[in-house]
Amino acid sequence: MSEPLIQLQGVSRIYDLGRVQVAALQEVDLTVEPGEFLAIVGPSGSGKSTLMNIVGCLDRPTAGTYTLAGTPVAELNDDGLARLRSRTIGFVFQSYNLLPRTSALENVATPLLYQGLSRKDRLARARAALERLGLGDRVDHVPTELSGGQQQRVAIARALVTEPALLLADEPTGNLDSASGADVMTILRELNAAGRTIVMITHDSDVASSARRQVHVRDGRLVA
Amino acid sequence: MRATELVRLALSRLGSSRLRAALTMLGVIIGVASVVSLVAVGQGATSGITKQLQGLGTNLLTVNPGRATTGFTRGAAGSVTTLTVQDAEAIGGLTGVAAVEPETSTSQLVVAGSQNTTTTIVGTTGGYTTVRNFSLWQGATLNGVAVDAALREAVLGATTADDLGLSASAIGTTIKIGSVPFQVVGILQAKGSTGPLSQDDQILVPYTTVEDHFVPGDTVRSIGISVASADQIDLVKAEITTLLESRHGIPVGGTDDFTIADQSQLLSTVGSVSALLTVLLAGIASISLLVGGIGIMNIMLVSVRERTREIGIRKAIGARGRDILAQFLVEALVLSLLGGLVGIVLGVALSALIGALAGWGFVFNPITPLIAVLFSLAVGIVFGVWPARQAARLDPIVALRYE
Known about the structure:
The complex is a heterodimer. Chain A has one domain (35-57, 77-223): P-loop containing nucleotide triphosphate hydrolases (Rossmann fold). Chain A has seven helices and ten strands. Chain A has helices at residues 48-55, 78-88, 104-113, 119-132, 148-160, 178-193, 205-208; strands spanning 6-17, 20-32, 37-41, 63-68, 71-72, 89-92, 166-170, 197-202, 213-218, 221-223. Chain A is globular and about 50 Å long. In chain B, the strands form two sheets. Chain B has a six-stranded mixed beta barrel. In chain B, strands 2-3 form a two-stranded antiparallel sheet. The radius of gyration of chain B is 33 Å and the shape is elongated. In chain B, α1 (3-15) packs across α11, α2 (18-55) packs antiparallel against α9 (263-306) and α2 runs parallel beside α11. The mean pLDDT of chain B is 86. Chain B is α+β, with helices and mostly antiparallel strands. At the A-B interface, α2 and α3 of A face α10, α11 and α13 of B.
């Protein structure tokens, strides 16, 4: 195999709250190869959200090194992080996080706006991504006109439209009923089967069992 | 991101909350409209007054009696009555003088049939209509024979004729001025000026007749001179000064007992006063533009807070700080610019209406809207930058968690 997609070495994230210092992550080592489907499992307060923020380049480690797709993240400024997110990562959130009052098509096309594509190309690729997820007849609907499962599928389409190396899913089934949740997990498994690297954060061991590998977070440390 | 993308984004955003956008723009609309219309009002008033002044006579010089100085006491203007009919005749012989007319005046009760009015009786010559830029509506003006023979002939101002119920058929009829019968020989065309200084409310009679029946003596109130061409005004002024000084026996360097008023002086004074007025009005109006700008800033700050989550999402999917900054700044700019454009249309319409009502017509100066647009753009930038920076600086993690 080639170089790993994600490589964390001795990563710590310490929040400085003035008098006290809280270590949300301590000395985490984690490697994810291209094509993996990894679940990061842990209860709330375990530090898994902090880990997800660091892996998603929304936050920087206070100690240790993180290399994503060959890029050392610690050396990047805010604009550099934004560019790395834009090129490399597709996010799927628990609460979908679609832009309100904005059609599914515009929502999916938005990441391409920040890559500087023309409007014509953006809309064409967004439409294709929605069709791949079976939402070809919902392109003009705004989020409030869509069910939770449909909204999450729009969010997955938005995450995939840039063809990112990494799909980062944070509790992707957390807000869904079991049928829609199973639906979303099927989609993720299919995407992984097609070669997409997926890192999923969850507290639900049933959901985690869909992944091909699991790591557990407890008190800011990786266990087993 | 390209500018067109940003404008499209801003328009779709503003389109989704039209009422709020309209109310926010209202401040800028009112500000720009008041700047545009008040400046137009100032300029319209200036040109109106200028036109009225020019209507007083072309290349007009007026010689007035000066002040009497007794010891250290200086009297009021006109407190000496040294100007005479003979002075006027002498001025008439100077080169560059097109027409000259002496004026004496008295106020008398005028009766025509059952109508009466009290008005100014101006004793003058036929030169009056030329110098003072009047034209006749009916009949004839005073001729040389009437002046020489002190005939009881009268030329009525338009307002006076109206007050007395006289029209075209009144030519040749008799009216009584201070119980002396006069024959109406002409009626003047109205100049349109109104108020206490109206030039349409007066009666012209030969100055010799005034001397015979009302005010004895050959002193005059003023002498009006029409200069042949504008570039001769200074020359004629110098000629008149030399002539009158020698006639009145005033040594060189002594204090003149007369003053010469020049139309151009008056025009430039009025011009500078009304320019000041225009600047003042614009200054007052721009305060409302400032308030409008603060309104935009307020709404943009509220908007940044409301849309914190949206900002977080955009950042997570690849927007840089400057993309967010540009998005919010362009939104503020679109608001202020749209408001500015609507304000210009409103302001131009308003100034046309005011111009029509006030009677000076519509003065459109393309510079004003241009400045108003630049001003409203500046308002958008100044009051949009701070909210936009707030938005751009948001931490995506915090913003995404924001409810």
